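Handout, section B. The chain below has 342 residues.
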Amino acid sequence: MPRLTIDGVEITTAGPTTILEAAKSAGIEIPHYCYHPGLSVVGQCRMCQVEVEKMPKLATACNTAVTDGMAVSTNSPRVEKARRAVLEFYLLNHPLDCPVCDRGGECPLQDYTLKYGPGESRTVEEKVQRAKHKILGPHIVFDAERCILCTRCVRFCHEVPRTGELGVFSRGDRSEINLFPGKVLDNAYSGNVIDLCPVGALTSREYRFQSRPWDLVRHTPSVCPLCSAGCNVIVDVRNRQRGDEILRIRPRENQAVNRWWMCDEGRFGFGYHHDPSRLRTALRREGAAQVETPLDDLLTRVAEEIQRIVRAHGEGAIGCIVSARHTTEELFLVRCFVRDVL
């Protein structure tokens, strides 16, 4: 078990790991963009540079393994100067559209610029103009001029669904994320690139310009009911005069179930919650009409009918059809009722 010191804090790791992960385990922030624990490590964004004792140059914390006795500084003058320089390069051609960007208010580029970046821009040249509002697939919109080429989206498509729709094209300052010819970003997990993108370059067509992060009054931990996988999710809710409104569903990390991801059906398929044709009250059929009935009275009537059918025809005459959109717990209760009570 290696022991190291980060900013004067002694840390003992459970096994082989990187400086970045060791710092996270101790609650020490090392800013980063390209690194994600569910993807391969590329050390590309250079934001996580740290100073390691006896190393002549700054090291990238995301792919530098810890060693016993290592001494690391995350806030030395050399590190701070390097971070300011990296952020200055990222902001060189980044558009000043934070007020209309869906990522504004929950953007790592905003947060790191405020915390670590230069106080003002030295750029006098015109910013490079790139594609805006480019449709990559049924759910994803791409604004190329916001992209910082962290390649999270590219690695995700190659490593998780293994469909490989995205790549980095051209070279140098003309490098740009794009679709391979003939491809559409429509794999079953495409929505995860929205969560992975740290700068609002990849946004949801459904959520785009619908709300600001601070308008989402609740972020409710929940479980997706659309299949038996039970993916852990966060339901983002906005309060309106007509009542609460679900605007967004995001994956919630659970290494035993869905890790960091969720499918597009669970992410975008929540429209039925607000469908005008959805039943809002208990209804009882009388001939060709449906009559609104108090729920307790309706349940009593259903129980009486079930008892009558069982007495007349036996238990085998009763069947039960349940919506797949119920939670696993609700489906379990229905099964118990049908098997044990009836």
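Note. Residues 20 and 85 are 20 Å apart (CA to CA). Compare this with the example in section A.
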